[in-house]
C-alpha cells in the first residue's frame, strides 16, 4: 500500500488540500480538496477522479481551527485511508532570512515561523494556526513547511535592498519576494518542456487575485515585483501594488487614518476593486461597459507590461514570457492586452493559440516567445516534504 503525502496551501480565505500517492519512486496527485472560510456556513469540497463532494461544515466558528480540521479529516477519512499518511506539508508565506528551503516542523521552527509573523501579519498566523491544530490532532504525523520566500534567496543583494539606512536592512527590512512555490513549479516544469529555453532569460507572470512577476535566469530568481510585503509590485484584485510612501504618510498624518484603517484600505479596498468601484475580478471588469472598469484593466495591464520591462533590465535581455495562475492561465484578453503593450520589445501573440489557451501563445516569428503554463504549488510542497522526510530519516 502506497504512503500518502498531504499538502495544505493556506490562502487568505481558503485552504487547498492535496493528497499525493508515494510509491517509493514517484508522486502522483490522487485527490484535491479545499475549505472555504469565506462561505457561511463553512464549506468543504473534494475531487477524486470523477468523484466530487461538496459539503457544508457543521463547525460554526472558523476561528476554532481544531474543530474545523477535526471535521474535515472526518470527511476525508470516508474517502482516504488516513492511516497511510506519511507526512503533511504546508505552504508558509514568509521564511525571512531564516529558511532557505523546506523545514521540519518542530518546536524551534514553529517559534521561528511565529517570530516572522510581524512581516506577514495577514498570512503567517493562519498557516501557524493550521500547523498547531494538526499537531494537536495528529501528534505522531510528521509535518514540514515550504516557504514562498525561499525561492528568491538567489536574488543579488542590489535587488533585495531598499534605499534606506543600512541598519534597517540589517534588521530585516528588505525585498523578500513571494509566490516562490509557484515560480519554482513553473521553472521546473517549463525546463522539462523547453530544455534550452528554460535555462535562458525568462519573466514569469503569476497573475491571480494576488499577483507578481519574477525574472528567472538559469531557472533561478534574479528579481521580483513583490518585495517586503505582499502589497508591493503590480496592482491586484484588492491590493494596491506599488504606491508612493508619501501617500501613506499623508493618510496617517493629514487624514488621521489609523493603521488598521490603512491596512484595510491597502489590502482589501484597493487594486482593481478600488479603481473600478465594481469588482476585483477581471472577468467582471472585461464584461462591463463602465469606463471605470476599462480604466482598471488598462492600469492593471500597463503596470504589468511596465514591470516586465523593468525586469528585462535586471536580466540583461529577455527570451520568453510565461503566464500562469488564475488570470494568467484562463484569461486570453488580459494576456493579449499585456502583449500589445510589449510590441516594442518584439512580443507578437498568435491570436488563435492565445484564445485556445495553448502552451505556446506567440507566433513563431515573435522575437520574444510567450507561453501559458499551469502552476502546481501543491506538487512542489509534496516534493519538498519528501526531501525533508529523507533528510530526517538519515
From TrEMBL:
Mg(2+). Can also accept Mn(2+). Pathway: Metabolic intermediate biosynthesis; acetyl-CoA biosynthesis; acetyl-CoA from acetate: step 1/2. Its main location: cytoplasm. GO terms for cellular component: cytosol. It catalyses: acetate + ATP = acetyl phosphate + ADP. The record marks 179, 239 as: Transition state stabilizer. Its EC number is 2.7.2.1. The active site is at 148 (proton donor/acceptor). SUPFAM superfamilies: Actin-like ATPase domain (SSF53067). GO terms for molecular function: acetate kinase activity; ATP binding; magnesium ion binding. Substrate binds at residue 91. The keyword Cytoplasm applies. PANTHER family: ACETATE KINASE (PTHR21060). Belongs to the acetokinase family. Catalyzes the formation of acetyl phosphate from acetate and ATP. Can also catalyze the reverse reaction. NCBIfam families: ackA, PRK07058.1. Homodimer. HAMAP family: Acetate_kinase. This is Acetate kinase. It comes from Pseudochrobactrum asaccharolyticum. The gene is ackA.
Amino acid at each position: 500500500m502506497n504512503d500518502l503525502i498531504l499538502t495544505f496551501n493556506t490562502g487568505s480565505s481558503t485552504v487547498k488540500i492535496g493528497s499525493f500517492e508515494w510509491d517509493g519512486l514517484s508522486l502522483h496527485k490522487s485527490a484535491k480538496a479545499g475549505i472555504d472560510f469565506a462561505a457561511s456556513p463553512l464549506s468543504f469540497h473534494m475531487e477524486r477522479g470523477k468523484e466530487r463532494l461538496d459539503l457544508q461544515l457543521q463547525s460554526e466558528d472558523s476561528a476554532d481551527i481544531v474543530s474545523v480540521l477535526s471535521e474535515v479529516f472526518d470527511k476525508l477519512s470516508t474517502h482516504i485511508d488516513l492511516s497511510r499518511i506519511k507526512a503533511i506539508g504546508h505552504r508558509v508565506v514568509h521564511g525571512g532570512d531564516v529558511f532557505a528551503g523546506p523545514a521540519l516542523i518542530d518546536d524551534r521552527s514553529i517559534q521561528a515561523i511565529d517570530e516572522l509573523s510581524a512581516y506577514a501579519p495577514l498570512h503567517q498566523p493562519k498557516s501557524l494556526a493550521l500547523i498547531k491544530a494538526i499537531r494537536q490532532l495528529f501528534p505522531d504525523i510528521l509535518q514540514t513547511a515550504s516557504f514562498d520566500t525561499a525561492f528568491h534567496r538567489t536574488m543579488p543583494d542590489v535587488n533585495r535592498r531598499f534605499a534606506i539606512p543600512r541598519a534597517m536592512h540589517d534588521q530585516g527590512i528588505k525585498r523578500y519576494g513571494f509566490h516562490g512555490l509557484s515560480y519554482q513549479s513553473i521553472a521546473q516544469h517549463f525546463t522539462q518542456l523547453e530544455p534550452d529555453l528554460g535555462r535562458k532569460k525568462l519573466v514569469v507572470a503569476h497573475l491571480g487575485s494576488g499577483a507578481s512577476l519574477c525574472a528567472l535566469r538559469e531557472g533561478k530568481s534574479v528579481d521580483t515585483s513583490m518585495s517586503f510585503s505582499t502589497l508591493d509590485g503590480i496592482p491586484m484584485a484588492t491590493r494596491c501594488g506599488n504606491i508612493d510612501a508619501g501617500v501613506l504618510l499623508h493618510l496617517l498624518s493629514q487624514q488621521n487614518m489609523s493603521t488598521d484603517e490603512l491596512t484595510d484600505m491597502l489590502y482589501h479596498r484597493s487594486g482593481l476593486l478600488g479603481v473600478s468601484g465594481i469588482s476585483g475580478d477581471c472577468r467582471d471588469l472585461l464584461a462591463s461597459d463602465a469606463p471605470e472598469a476599462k480604466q482598471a484593466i488598462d492600469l492593471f495591464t500597463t503596470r504589468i507590461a511596465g514591470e516586465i520591462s523593468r525586469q528585462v533590465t535586471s536580466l540583461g535581455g529577455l527570451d520568453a514570457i510565461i503566464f500562469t495562475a488564475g488570470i494568467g492561465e484562463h484569461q486570453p484578453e488580459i494576456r493579449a492586452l499585456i502583449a500589445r503593450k510589449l510590441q516594442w520589445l518584439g512580443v507578437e501573440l498568435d491570436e488563435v493559440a492565445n484564445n485556445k489557451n495553448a502552451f505556446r501563445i506567440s507566433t513563431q516569428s515573435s522575437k520574444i516567445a510567450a507561453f501559458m503554463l499551469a502552476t502546481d504549488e501543491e506538487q512542489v510542497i509534496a516534493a519538498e516534504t519528501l526531501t525533508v522526510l529523507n533528510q530526517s530519516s538519515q
